[in-house]
Design brief:
71 residues, two-stranded antiparallel ribbon, 2 helices
Length: 71
């Protein structure tokens, strides 16, 4: 029973790291977005993707890269 509980605790810790990384990325991306939104609001698209989504994906990728490099 103790071994099973320890395994479950370990699994929770492993998933917590991934969930935390997702929360960091989402939070910082949405905090930065109001400051750079004016540069990316237009009717233009890149490969049929609106510039708004390109900007959000770009910021999220940058934040994710910085968090992973810092870790």
């Amino acid at each position: 029973m103790k071994k099973w509980l320890m395994r479950q605790y370990w699994r929770i810790q492993q998933s917590q790291a991934m969930i935390g990384l997702g929360f960091w990325t989402a939070t910082i991306t949405l905090l930065v977005w109001p400051y750079v939104r004016w540069r990316l609001e237009s009717d233009e698209t890149i490969l049929l993707i609106p510039m708004t989504y390109v900007g959000l994906i770009g910021i999220a990728t940058l934040v994710l890269t910085i968090v992973l490099l810092a870790g």
